[in-house]
Write a structure and sequence with these properties.
The complex is a heterodimer of chains A (363) and B (295).
Chain A: H1 7-13, H2 21-37, H3 41-66, H4 74-91, H5 96-119, H6 123-142, E1 155-156, H7 168-194, H8 197-207, H9 209-214, H10 219-245, E2 247-248, H11 255-268, H12 275-289, H13 294-311, H14 316-335, H15 337-347
Antiparallel strand pairs in A: 1-2
Chain B: H1 2-32, H2 39-57, H3 61-84, H4 95-118, E1 132-136, E2 139-142, H5 143-165, H6 167-177, H7 179-184, H8 189-212, H9 223-236, H10 241-262, H11 267-281, H12 291-294
Antiparallel strand pairs in B: 1-2
The chains are: A mainly alpha (363), B mainly alpha (295).
Chain lengths: 363, 295
């Protein structure tokens, strides 16, 4: 950047892209009318599942992508949310809405168990600690014989949300719209978080921990805030999952589902705002198309992940943004060569909302 | 008492195999800064190679081990070229994270390809030698596990000699210690990366051959070894070969003793729990150096 940049440019340089209001409204409307346009139980069910995964992936992205914290225990947090929400509504008859909230709070509390220890560890070591935590939770649930969690078979008979009087079709649609509302609410929360001073300090801690701490960002405080926010969101998603499907089982945790969610996150773009949602939608569509070729499904998904990581390691969303910026630059070059010269500075690849790697990652 | 000693003996045997399987992981992390998730797939591939050689061709066990090592080496180099090399030096990308994910993707593909080729049914590989050796009263060890431990220790010694005596081994150590200095001394880093991935994958494949006759060979035969290898590697300190070998024996013993006193069901949860505690006390593993010191 050459010397002074206008404030508008500065905002762009920090990667604070303004969302396109028309596009956002169009996507939400399209998602909202899907059950009406395509009134097929199966399609709505897949859409609902995708929406739940979107909530979960957004919360995970807050840690993994934006915070650069290698947390691979998010599925256990999701499961803790699901189990606690299911348990309070089965045993104490807590209404569904409140149970989901309790699920979120339970997940947030559980996440504090790992938030502080992880602070001491770096990169890969943190991933093992969090993954160990998740495995301990999973194995404890599987080997639980007291009947509280239902062991391997899972906990069934989770009561419905308060949609009692509706027909099955209407009930499913109500769930769908509620899930969509939750996705939008989560997106707003994450958006506000990223673009607040909190988000800036989180990114600063990711890119240069020492410098950020020296400038007065408290790693401990940020860790607790990030973990509890992400866990609360994941817990709500878990509670919703439990109430919609009526069952929670330990099979939501483990390596296989983790592989799927990591694929979604990486393909969309880790550390970007829209990435997790785009990735989830894409992978859900692809894996539905591959449903008839069950054996080849995981091979193809794995290959897609591999090719994406090798070709566009930052994910599709940043890659597309870069491509758009390049086309715009190319078009503006045609119009006025001198203007293009100055505008390239603010629009080259390094300014986009990318996880600017810390020096340790570069070889 | 004899039960205790029996557990110690079997712990030492499993520890040796863990060491062979994990040393490769730590070597790769030391040179390439990649947590290689395909290490488990190599164990699985080694097992299948052993099965094909024993069952299909009827060749002897030693040839099986050699064949597995060659196949593992080839796979390792191919994975390095396809999944890790394109990521080196990319700007704006966290190399450790992306390389971890790309090897993870390769592992998913490999185990599902194996599922397509060989089916989900597990294959049995017969043990090399039958019979048991009676050490003391009530303590015995099967000749087969003794041979396994022997091969494992021999492989580790050969690796130690390779790393400290030969030209190429020294190149690997040099790149692991100081990449820039190694390059300035004229060491071709790219070739060292290939060599490291090849050697490490060959080691994992040999471990796969050894494990094949104890457990069965199946498409996800690599999952549990991968999990164990991760624990051992991080417990020992990534990048430290000595720490890894020490950790492998500690974990092998701990596992055997936990299964003896608490039952097999508890061995994995307790292992994870103790690792969590160990990492809180020593965040970089037993002999691992802090990240800052290594840069």
């Amino acid at each position: 950047m050459k010397g002074v940049a206008a404030r508008g440019n500065l905002v762009d340089d920090l990667g604070w892209r303004r969302p396109n209001p028309v596009g956002v409204a169009a996507v939400i409307t399209l998602a909202a009318v899907l059950p009406i346009m395509w009134p097929n139980d199966y399609v709505i069910d897949v859409g609902l599942t995708a929406l739940i995964w979107m909530i979960l992936n957004q919360s995970w992205n807050l840690q993994l992508g934006i915070g650069g914290i290698w947390n691979f225990g998010q599925l256990a947090i999701f499961a803790i949310g699901a189990y606690s929400s299911a348990l309070v509504s089965i045993h104490w008859g807590v209404p569904g809405w409140l149970a989901m909230l309790i699920g979120g709070l339970g997940a947030a509390l559980a996440s504090l168990i790992i938030a502080i220890p992880v602070l001491r560890l770096r990169g890969i070591y943190a991933s093992l600690l969090t993954f160990s935590f998740a495995e301990v939770v999973r194995l404890l649930v599987i080997s639980d014989q007291s009947g509280v969690t239902g062991g391997t078979f899972g906990l069934s008979g989770v009561p419905d949300l308060a949609f009692g009087g509706l027909t099955p079709d209407a009930r499913q649609r109500a769930y769908y719209w509620l899930a969509l509302a939750l996705v939008v609410a989560t997106a707003v929360v994450i958006y506000v978080f990223i673009h607040s001073p909190l988000g800036a300090s989180l990114k600063a801690l990711r890119d240069s921990p020492g410098y950020a701490a020296a400038r007065g960002v408290s790693p401990m405080r940020m860790q607790v805030i990030t973990f509890s926010t992400a866990a609360f969101i994941a817990g709500i998603a878990g509670g919703f999952y439990a109430h919609y499907f009526g069952v929670v089982s330990p099979s939501v945790m483990g390596l296989a589902p983790m592989a799927l969610f990591v694929t979604m996150l990486v393909i969309g773009g880790l550390g970007t705002f829209a990435g997790p949602m785009v990735g989830t939608a894409l992978i859900m569509v692809v894996s539905e198309y591959l449903r008839d070729y069950q054996e080849a499904r995981l091979i193809i998904l794995g290959l897609i992940l591999l090719v994406t990581v090798v070709v566009a390691p930052r994910g599709l969303v940043p890659a597309l943004q870069d491509a758009r910026a390049r086309v715009q630059r190319w078009m503006s070059e045609d119009e006025s060569p001198i203007d293009a010269e100055t505008s390239t500075g603010s629009e080259t690849g390094e300014t986009s909302e990318s996880p600017v790697s810390s020096s340790k990652g570069e070889r | 008492m004899s039960a205790f000693l029996q557990a110690v003996v079997s712990g030492l045997v499993t520890g040796s195999i863990y060491a062979v399987m994990t040393v490769g992981m730590t070597l790769i992390y030391g040179t390439l800064r990649t947590l290689n998730m395909t290490q488990g797939s190599m164990v699985m591939i080694g097992g299948y190679v052993a099965w094909m050689v024993f069952d299909g061709l009827g060749w002897g066990p030693i040839l099986g081990g050699v064949a597995a090592a060659v196949v593992g080496f080839a796979f390792g180099v191919a994975i390095q070229q396809a999944a890790i090399r394109p990521l080196i030096g990319r700007r704006g990308v966290d190399f450790e994270m992306t390389a971890f994910i790309s090897t993870f993707a390769v592992a998913i593909v490999l185990s599902n390809v194996a599922l397509r080729i060989y089916g989900a049914r597990s294959k049995a590989v017969p043990p090399v030698i039958h019979g048991r050796l009676h050490l003391l009263e009530g303590i015995s060890v099967s000749w087969h596990s003794l041979v396994m431990a022997g091969i494992a220790v021999g492989t580790l010694l050969a690796l130690g000699g390779f790393l400290s005596k030969t030209r190429y081994g020294l190149a690997i150590s040099a790149v692991a210690q100081q990449l820039d200095a190694a390059r300035l001394m004229g060491i071709p880093a790219q070739r060292v990366y290939n060599l490291t991935m090849g050697v490490s994958s060959a080691l994992a494949a040999i471990a796969g051959v050894l494990l094949a006759s104890v457990f069965f060979v199946s498409p996800n035969a690599g999952d549990l070894p991968l999990l164990k290898a991760l624990i051992v590697a991080i417990f020992g300190g990534l990048g430290s070969v000595r720490g890894t070998i020490l950790a492998a024996y500690i974990i092998g013993l701990a596992e055997a003793l936990v299964s003896l006193y608490f039952g097999v069901k508890w061995s994995l949860p307790l292992l994870f729990l103790s690792i969590m505690i160990v990492m809180l006390v020593r965040p970089t593993g037993l002999l691992g150096k802090p990240e800052e010191a290594r840069l």
